[in-house]
Amino acid sequence: MIKIENKRTGFLYMGIILAGIIILGFFVQSCSDDSFSSETDADRQLSEMELKLIAESNEFEDYMMTAADLLQSFRIFEKELAKVDYAKLETVIENGREVRYLPEAIRTLQVDRKVVLMNEKKEILLNKYPQLSEQELLSFTKCVDICIGRSIRVNEFFLDKKINIYRPLLKSVIAEYEFDTINQLVGYLYGWTFSPDYVEVHAFFFTDGTYMVALDSRNTANGCAITITTAGDKHYFNGKEISVMSHTQTANNTPSDRDFETKEQFPHCSHAIFYNAGFYFY
User: Is the whole model's pTM more than 0.70, yes or no?
Assistant: First the structure.
């Protein structure tokens, strides 16, 4: 059951937020915690046949379903939490401490139980395929794509839970998505990097505290374009002043020569690369 102790509200809330953001990232970064493979295995990339074998296994399907279920619950949790009036929360005294319980709509999500279940499924998966924990993010992404494309069981689960993991085909159109919080932005961008239709996108931080992802028809998997307006020492997109201009990358967080040229072209805002659920400023 999720509850909030008076002096720890911020810490408990942030813990849930992070759990949602790194739902899949924790898996990829678990090499240091789950060191099953030898140094030789770690250096070897899995073949397409090996990736297909892992992606079609019951263990990978189980992990995919529990991870997707947790992520959906986290999104609902965040929306419901935004509606909470903390002054009206149910308050009880437990062991001499004042405890406030979150509303029923949030408690029934059982986010804490789903986090535990996902980690259990992760351990089972890594015990059977320890080599997966040593692979690059790209290999894990391929497993996800194969699983979604071939697994009837996983797709039936997504339909039953009303989980929409498919992204619209945006390569030939311009699309923009606005977000009110950094958590929403990071969650969207991380999910986008796993899309079969992935292309690089720009993510803007605006001075009014809002965020936006922009997908341009000129974008490719290795580059993206955008039209920025400059007035004096300020840069604007869609009429909003930019404080941070960033873009996604899936291979690494190293800026290219073109990135540095863009930084020189727009010097009055910060610049960053979104990679593996984090922003890397340069």
Answer: no
